[in-house]
Predict the 3D structure of the following.
Amino acid sequence: MLSPEQIQALCESSRPKLEAMRAALRAHGSALVAFSGGVDSTFVLKVAVEELGERALALTALSASVAPEEAQEARELAERIGARHVVVGSNELANPQYAANPTNRCYFCKTELYDICEARRKELGLAVVLDGFNADDFKDHRPGHKAAQEHRVVSPLAQAGLTKEEIRAWSQSLGLPTWDKPQMACLASRIPYGTSVTRDRLLQIAAAESELRKLGFRQFRVRYHQEVARLEVAAEEYERFLAADVRKKINTAFLALGFKFVALDLEPFRSGRMNEAAGVARPEAPGVGKVEGFSLPVVS
């Protein structure tokens, strides 16, 4: 978690980036924000509403891969920000290419999302679709970004060069409760590549993670391995498993959900482990101004 001193320093050093983002949003005139309720898209929506007012619209797409808590939080955040907000259903599971769970699964999910966003954008006469892709995301395996490029989705955070820490710092400065929200990803990311994604499996994972939230855990994943639920938790939360009653509650709840074994991973949670296990390499860091077909402005 960032300290007050770190937040102040990050905001001061990145102020030109935020001003560049604000100017770019004003230049668009209107926008539809693909809004998940995560740290990044919430920040984009907040700034878009500040700059565009009623000409900014948040769109949240819901499917079985979205945890119920996340769907509710997205609604509450949009209301708190004062944004116009629409919630639509998506059905990426109907696409056999998505359900097969290849290493580029996110491409098919984001294609479905941006098809929905583009149709609504045209219907309402809005200028662009915005996403929450940030400058740090170029360092990870992000096949969904290809779908964004194909749909001409604008990534204002990446274009301004804003990093995750800077976004968190500005989120705190703007009073957004998501500033210290743990990293999130769709529920399908809990299933190893090559193991098919099904509605039942997603619901099972969602219910298991809900049980952990009820017990007060914040940063974790329930990884699906057929009969086995493998728990990854943040290092700072490991000691909680020393309590026998906590372990018993988790084990009882997970067995009731259909798992036969519950295991605690000895390595703490960190993003990207499933990609590493599948041998998916992280992309090379892009050169300044040369990022897969569009330029990043240099903001000093």
Summary: The radius of gyration is 19 Å.
